[in-house]
Amino acid sequence: MALILNEEQQSLKDIAKEFLQKNAPVTHFREIRDTQNELGYDKSLWSEMVNLGWSGILIPEEYGGFDFGMVGMGSIFEEMGRTLTPSPLFSTGVLGATLITLGGDDKQKQNYLPRIVDGSLTTALALEEGNRHSPFSISTKATKAGNDYKISGEKTFVIDGHCSNLIVVAARTEGSDDDASGISLFLVEADTDGIEITKTSMVDSRNSANIKFNKITVSSSNLLGEENNGAAILEEVLDRAQIAISAEMLGNASQAFDVTLDYLKERKQFGSVIGTFQALQHRAAEMYSELELTKSSVIAACNAVDENSNDLKRMASLAKYKAGETNHLVTNEAVQMHGGVGVTDEYDVGLYLKRARVTEQIFGNSEFHLDRYATLSEY
Amino acid sequence: MTDLQTFREETRNWLEANCPQEMRKPGDVAWGGRNAQFSHPDQKIWLERMGEKGWTCPTWPSEYGGGGLSKEENKILQEEMGAIGARSPLGSFGIWMLGPALLEFADEEQKKEHLPPIVKGEVWWCQGYSEPGSGSDLASLSTKAVEDGDNYVINGQKIWTSYADKADKIFCLVRTGPQEPKHDGISFLLIDMDQPGVTTRPITLISGKSPFCETFFDDAKAPTKDLVGGLNKGWTVAKRLLEHERTMISAMGLSGGGDGSKKTKSGLAEIGKKYVGIDADQKISDKALRRKVAMHDLNSRAFGLTMQRVGEETKVGAPSPAAAMGKYYGTEHNKLRYELMLEAMGTQGVGWDGEGFSIEELAITRDWLRTKANSIEGGTSEVQLNVISKRVLGLPDK
């Protein structure tokens, strides 16, 4: 396993960096936020990302995708973490793309995947029901009614839930609320009667929604994968999603750190730049060490996806754990080391702090993944 | 077949024919030297065969007795040795610390004289850096070397000289320019230990014993030709050598921490289960300890991957600026590992010797005490953080 990028991957990363810094720097995010853009991202920027092929990176070539792999996708997410770029790439290019690629039948793949690649379809995953990630705690019910299912229940923290054409809903077709078995996945058009979507305003000003399903009717041909076996697909998808979001968190932490390091070298107090103070130097050096460890964990986890490693689950938890811990530490320190200006809206560090805390919540925080890693390691 | 495939095949065959069966089992590693001691006759044979081939120092140039292997070839050699469980043929500060510095700073004559005996394990080297008054502030050292004809005359005291009581020679930082600013009056000098002016005294550590000594110089002599890197230019050599030392010590953190594979994962989780017990789900019953074990395992893995990545990023023999990070993190991490073992073991973890404790328990306790020195020797953790701040992050001094 190589832990450095090959030529192709490096070139994709360089292109992503250049594109994002030019077209979607932090000022772009601020504009979306301050104009209270209903969509939560810029459509023309998204179509440029689509033109660069990003939405099809994880989609097989036979469905029009580029099958470029998770190392490539991770590089893009890392760069988007640096620029705080809002886009549906996570909900569509990672969640939707892998849900349908890994769980769909050929007809579903033919129907949806090319539209993800060409940017005409955006997707969301309606999974969580509580305030803490618990993938199999599902009480949303789907009951068979002839050739259809009736789905009722409430979902929360659905990323891009208010602006997607297609919602993948995890619902219970059997068993009790915390069972892994008995969960089924459904492909639901967002404009289906009986769906109530409420956009939630999060601290990071990024997209999230609560969704209520009031006895909506879904055809059984929209079942993704086998009935009652949704958990297996979900687990594989969540591993990939955790790794992609970890890459974004690595970028978020790296940028917050770089900005802080620059500040330490220019801000003067007591007649010297504050970066000469050992109390700050040592904390900076510790953050550097944690960032190095996080970088290795993320790229190794991306590799684990591409190499189909049988240790993928633990690697996903490693990446999300390290990214969560490091991003938490670095964004807190970034604000503190900036002093007064660190808590102003004018400076960017606060934006990284806010984004850090929301990404920690996405598909399990560090504590969740500690526990998962120990369980997977049989202790 | 590619060249590397051919090399792999040849290496495999050579090892098969030349590595004695006894050396394919775990056990102690020979340190060589003029009065070399071998715990098994095969240790001697193994050292001689590997030394002859230069594979004790695989990537050193063959003109100085090394193996002359490329980074890729060396990787293959290590893999093939690993595959048959071959023991390292030789432990040596000459290999890990002095040799790389000589390759970079010594003149041709010095390289020809000193490198081949390191490769063959004929000379046991030790390191004379710290002094009682010069620990973290190493550059304040005061052991003096005064020129007298073809020799330097050395007076002073070194401390923490590992294996000084067994070593044949010492690479030493000495003050040759008492009037110069402190960093500019230091030279790097090679001194023979086998002379009346050099005496050593072992130091007992909190773990009960140790390889460390004090070394005293009373009008000891060293030929002027054995000064490496130029008069008063020793600090440059010293700093580079410290980077090699840090790489060596951070590798110890790694071997203690493990790469997350089944084999090295053991230790902590197994000790936790054994001493604390398991619940109905086979999990460590003390939830707080289980959480700490998991955290440690995750960080072990992240650290192991980082050392691997740094290895991929750097060229053969070139110490990376990340070495300070490796030394800092690796040693702190290793200390934590032993603290967690003791936490799990309870009173069985704090026995000193004798009845009531198993050999393994006593070994863990002694090792726990020994790890306390890891974050002090070779530059304290605080010094490593200084190095990262200044050399890696570019934070200013003033």
Question: Would you summarize the structure shown here?
Answer:
With 379 residues, chain A is of the alpha+beta class.
Strand portion of chain A = 5-15%
Average pLDDT across residues of chain A? Answer: 97
Domain module tally of chain A = 3
Radius of gyration of chain B: 22 Å
Largest interface: A-B, 41 and 43 residues
Q: Which architecture name of the largest domain in chain B does CATH use?
A: Up-down Bundle
The CATH top-level class label of the largest domain in chain A:
Mainly Alpha
Low-confidence stretches of chain A: none
H/E element string of chain B? HHHHHEEEEEEEEHHHHHH
Give a verbal description of the structure.
The complex is a heterodimer of chains A (379) and B (398). Chain A is globular and about 80 Å long. Chain A folds into three domains: 7-121, Butyryl-Coa Dehydrogenase, subunit A, domain 1, CATH 1.10.540.10; 124-229, Butyryl-CoA Dehydrogenase, subunit A, domain 2; 231-376, Butyryl-CoA Dehydrogenase, subunit A, domain 3 (Up-down Bundle). Chain A is α+β, with helices and mostly antiparallel strands. In chain A, α4 (70-83) packs antiparallel against α8 (278-306) and α9 packs antiparallel against α10 (349-361). The longest helix of chain A has 37 residues, at 230-266. Chain A is 51% helix and 15% strand. In chain A, a hairpin with a 2-residue loop joins β9 (268-269) and β10 (272-273). In chain A, the strands form three sheets. In chain A, strands 1-4-5-8 form a four-stranded mixed β-sheet, covered by helices on one side. Chain B has 398 residues and is an alpha+beta fold. Chain B folds into three domains: 3-120, Butyryl-Coa Dehydrogenase, subunit A, domain 1 (Orthogonal Bundle), CATH 1.10.540; 125-232, Butyryl-CoA Dehydrogenase, subunit A, domain 2 (Beta Barrel), CATH 2.40.110.10; 237-392, Butyryl-CoA Dehydrogenase, subunit A, domain 3. Helix content of chain B is 46%, strand content 13%. Chain B contains eleven helices and eight strands. A four-stranded mixed β-sheet of chain B has the order 1-4-5-8. In chain B, strands 2-3-7-6 form a four-stranded antiparallel β-sheet, with no helix packed on it. In chain B, α1 (3-18) packs across α3 (71-83), α4 runs antiparallel to α5 (108-120) and α9 packs antiparallel against α10. The longest helix of chain B has 27 residues, at 287-313. The termini of chain B are far apart. The relative contact order of chain B is 0.09. The model of chain B is unreliable at 255-266 (pLDDT under 50). Chains A and B meet through α7, β10, α8, α9 and α11 of A and α7, α8, α9 and α11 of B.
